Amino acid sequence: MSFDLWGEQAHLDPLPILARMRAEAPVARLLDPHQGAPEWVVTRYDDVVELLRDTRFSKDKRKLPAGAREMYFRVSELDALDKHMLFSDPPEHTRLRSLVAKAFTPRRIRELRPMIVESARRLLEPLRSRGEADVLEVFAFALPITVLAELMGVPVEDQDRFQGWTKTLAAPPDFDSLRRMAVEFHDYLVEFVERRRREPTGDLTSALIEAEELGDRLGTVELISMLFLLIAAGYETTGNLIGNAVWALLSHPEQVERLRGTPALLESAVEEVLRFAPPVKNTIGAYPLADVEFCGQVIPAGEKVVASLLSANHDPSRFADPDRFDITRSADKHLAFGLGSHFCLGAQLARLEAAVAVEALLREFPKLALTGEPTRWKEGVFVHGRTKVGVTW
Ligand code: HEM
């Protein structure tokens, strides 16, 4: 059985392929399109939930059996940036997560709202004199990078470099670019953390330096890795969420009308976008440390397993008529932010940014519509976003 999850058809519409996988091979062994390494893809909602809670799978590459590590992790320059919680298991993960939780508080996120609203306004202002643009280019990705820079206390003039590094990380053109990015980004973060140690401010970086749990603190490598993770996990994802929201809403004009008529639907509209077009289509890999039986399949030690969040969110056993976009549905059980111990730390921030972005766009541009230019899903095994979202207003 073969499922071309990374081919041309998947970039046009992956849903029929995923439906076939759920029916015929719910735990399927495919080959990674770039590296040719085995990758198990779990597609049914219930199985995805089980996988994300299954402690037999490790996220820590340092524990992988010989051979597996070299097969999946080829860019050693990234090692200095990946001592973070997404690549760790308990008790290390628990320790890192409780330290960041001290700094990344719901209150800090709530307090960002005025800054996000103002950033959105500033980005949309110059667009008035134009009549047409690609939302991804002029707005969707500019907002999260501004927000992350503000949150972390990074100078505005460094934003372009940030954007370049995160873009390379999300969709590396080749291994050399990835290596270069890792080195430059690492050196930048080392210098930045040093500066904050000398001159603490009220930003998240200073709070992370200060964070202490039971007498324990983040070491420098952990601190740099944590900052790297926040940027890596928070930029491309949120940019695509905003892009997917504009695309999904404007491709369903009746839903936009509904939202304009009932602004209280904003939150549920964002949840439905997260369900319908989750910006992270697959979780990063988890690896069984010994051969395991999972949902009737034997998965050999060290082979990568990912959960298809896109497929789980379109599983008819969980969501009625799942391929229909409906902002009034109660989509709160979607898995766009994952589940279990690695559940997205930035979920509230992402929701807030998307809500502010959609609200600002609809308010500023009452005639907002898609240009109808062709667009499809981006290539890549992780991110799920449109290549372009052309709009007129
Ligand atoms: C729409 C936007 C976002 C989506 C769809 C998203 C999705 C996810 C998913 C699926 C995971 C779990 C990955 C896995 O298990 O392999 C995750 C983890 C994580 N996310 Fe997000 N994310 C978003 C935005 C953000 C933001 C804005 C931040 C922070 C600034 C963030 C920080 C993190 C961190 C730190 C983790 C690792 C948590 C852990 O390992 O305990 N994310 N995210």
Structure description:
There is one protein chain. With 393 residues, the chain is mainly α. It has one domain (8-392): Cytochrome p450 (Orthogonal Bundle). It is built from 18 helices and 10 strands. The chain has helices spanning 8-12, 15-24, 45-53, 68-72, 92-103, 106-110, 113-124, 135-140, 142-152, 159-170, 175-198, 204-210, 220-234, 236-250, 253-261, 266-276, 309-312, 347-364, and strands at 27-31, 38-42, 57-58, 132-134, 287-288, 292-294, 297-299, 304-307, 369-370, 390-392. It has a 3-stranded mixed sheet, covered by helices on one side. Strands 4-10-9 form a 3-stranded antiparallel sheet. A hairpin with a 6-residue loop joins strand 1 and strand 2. The mean pLDDT is 94. It binds protoporphyrin IX containing FE (HEM). Protoporphyrin IX containing FE binds next to helix 13, helix 14 and helix 18. It comes from Allokutzneria albata (Kibdelosporangium albatum). This is Cytochrome P450. InterPro entries: Cyt_P450, Cyt_P450_B, Cyt_P450_CS, Cyt_P450_sf.
The number of E-state strands comes to 10
The description of the largest β-sheet is: 3 strands, mixed
Bin the strand percentage: 5-15%
Describe the strand arrangement of the main beta sheet, using strand numbers: 1-2-8
The helix content is: 40-55%
Total individual domains: 1
Kindly report the name of the CATH homologous superfamily. Cytochrome P450
GO molecular function: heme binding; iron ion binding; monooxygenase activity; oxidoreductase activity, acting on paired donors, with incorporation or reduction of molecular oxygen
Keywords: Heme, Iron, Metal-binding, Monooxygenase, Oxidoreductase
Protein name: Cytochrome P450
Family: Belongs to the cytochrome P450 family.
